[in-house]
Design goal:
The chain has one domain: Ribonuclease Z/Hydroxyacylglutathione hydrolase-like (Metallo-beta-lactamase, Chain A), CATH 3.60.15.10. Helix content is 23%, strand content 30%. A six-stranded mixed sheet has the order 1-2-3-4-5-6, with helices on one face. Strands 7-8-9-10-13-14 form a six-stranded mixed sheet. A two-stranded antiparallel ribbon has the order 11-12.
């Protein structure tokens, strides 16, 4: 398996494509520039199996409609943010970009910390609320990688001043769900470059003294 990062839109939100040798892939957080993202997937010859969402802020969901129009695949989201997909007030698009982002789909709702298997891809679901109520991280043990959305960044943490954000909850999520992963685990965040759990434990100023 290999992962590819594609920063999209004005906020340069990271969409990730995780592909298998058999040509299948899953798409994480297709946030914007749907035409560009679809063309890239086509050019690589990938066959998407699913869209996996770490959370439902507008900059992580804006290209869903374009992707599922081309490939009618299931969309996975934590149940607490199901309604956010079609509600610009909840997903923030009504406030921040002056246009209404609505994902037109019937999502598969994730409810518990469990194992999710899609084709040849297996993820351990980690509930990591704080940035948003339904933030979820996907840990792929096979490639020692966690897709963390806007929970943990290289040298920083997710913001908690948006509706539903909670600083104490975010810090608890990071410490109880992410920092317990092996230190060599690669962290693929919603914005910016990749990092590792060990690097953030050693150098992230937001994680010291909590």
């Amino acid at each position: 398996m290999k992962w590819e990062r594609i920063p999209l839109g004005p906020l340069q939100t990271n969409a990730y494509i995780l592909s298998h040798l058999d040509g299948t892939c899953v798409v994480f957080d297709p946030g914007s520039e749907g035409g560009r993202l679809v063309r890239y997937i086509e050019e690589q010859g990938y066959q998407p199996l699913a869209i996996l969402l770490t959370h439902a802020h507008f900059d992580h969901i804006g290209a869903i409609n374009d992707v599922i129009k081309k490939w009618p695949v299931p969309v996975y989201i934590h149940e607490q943010e199901r309604e956010w997909l079609s509600d610009p007030l909840l997903n923030g698009s009504a406030y921040f970009i002056g246009e209404q982002v609505k994902a037109v789909c019937t999502p598969h709702c994730l409810r518990d910390e469990a194992t999710l298997t899609i084709g040849n891809f297996t993820f351990e679901l980690l509930e990591t609320p704080g940035h948003s109520p339904g933030s979820i991280s996907y840990y792929c043990r096979e490639i020692e990688t966690v897709f963390s959305g806007d929970v943990l960044f290289a040298g920083s943490i997710g913001r908690t001043d948006l509706p539903g954000g909670n600083y104490e909850q975010l810090m608890q999520s990071i410490h109880d769900r992410l920092l317990v992963l092996p230190e060599e685990t690669v962290v693929l965040s919603g914005h910016g470059p990749e990092t590792t759990i060990g690097t953030e434990m050693d150098t992230n100023p937001f994680l010291h003294g909590f």
